[in-house]
Amino acid sequence: MSYCQEVLELVKSRHADQPEFVQAVTEVLESLEPAIAANETLYRRKALLERLVEPERQIIFRVPWVDDNGQVQVNTGYRVQFNSAIGPYKGGLRFHPSVKLDTMKFLGFEQTFKNSLTTLPMGGGKGGSDFDPRGKSDDEVMRFCQSFMTELSKHIGANTDVPAGDIGVGAREVGYLYGQYKRLRNEFTGVLTGKGLSFGGSLIRPEATGFGAVYYTVEMLKSLGDDITGKTFAVSGFGNVAWGTVKKITEMGGKVVTISGPDGYVYDEDGINTPEKIDFMLEMRASGHDKVQDYADKFGVPFFAGKRPWEVKVDVVMPCAIQNEINLDDAKNIVANGVKYCVEVANMPTTFDAAAYMRENGVTLAPSKAVNAGGVAVSGLEMSQNSMRYNWTEEEVDAKLQQIMSNIFRSSYEAAKKYGMEGDLVAGANLAAFEKVADAMLAQGVV
Question: Per the CB 3.0–4.6 Å rule, which of 56, 169, 189, 313 could disulfide with 337?
């Protein structure tokens, strides 16, 4: 049994109750075989993989807060500081009822590799709570955020761990979290990214994940002798990530025909391609209703209740919502419809068997850890601006983002080619990211 397989079996037996984490580790370790084989004796002796799959620190805490009726509520908070070999822990905070330790560990593991691909000095971490901000008043969200940060502040810092926003944590939540951190620590520092422009935020940050995903897609298409112009896209979700994706696809000549929510998806044959349509996505998100039928009602297009948009015939699918939103049945629909490309924008949005089926049937799969790295890349740029007490222009940030995403594609492509796996973008991203993290871990000793 190979070293990768040994460690994978160890993870499966030790963490059988954490399927998402096991899924993430499986996808990575299975593609690292050629890199590990080249240095197996050294890696075994240093227990490199055993350390790579074990978080450096897992913090779990209660979050008591008072609702508007005076009733005390209690949620669970998490921060998984996964790997700091190449820089401070960096990764978002997610407020969603589905949040559990399994989710945080898989996201923190993925974040380690994603951040490595950006070439910026950032390690991997993730955090959040099972708190649901939907339907809560601003005061309730503020009280929760203040309680959450009261505990989290003991474990983070501008040179230790720099959280950002994720699902359920937007500008409002980041503002409340930052205010409480500043109040407790009595310092104005770049400890959170995704901040408002008035207190240290970066231009392009809300759009960054979606914009970066499209810049990656453009590079991918170019390498295959293809072009984005005239391509049709099925996009899921309708939050910041989907909004940035739709906006940039439209700017670059593609046409998005779907967006989706927990209630179903809409199909707009003419394209979600006008400022009114694109900006209405933000209105829907801000409303807190968490349903996409509002778009169908407003613009008079078909709405498909309880369904996902992977049954629509398009050139490219771009899942932008949540993990494992494309299952095997969806993958079969995608292949049957002749879709050429699946570009993962959400974190691990494709189940293991669905990803395998698409790749076996000729669909080019671009992995989330590479595709959606634009968000954390601009967070890294925000950290740099905070350190310099300076702000770059929108054009400067966008140019840096484009360059980072181009480099991510190129490094992934070249890594796959180096190990005899040319064209395998999933393996390439894992291999390119692993090399940097592994070298840093070995250089720093057994820590």
Answer: 313
User: What are 371's two structure tokens?
Assistant: 């595709």
222 part of the active site:
no
Evaluate whether 366 touches 220 at the Cβ level (below 8 Å).
Answer: yes
Catalytic: which of 126, 136, 195, 248? Answer: 126
DSSP class per residue in 54-81 = S-SEEEEEEEEEE-TTS-EEEEEEEEEE
SS3 53: coil
Q: What is the CATH number of domain 208-371?
A: 3.40.50.720
Question: Does the domain formed by 55-187 have CATH 3.30.365.10?
Answer: no
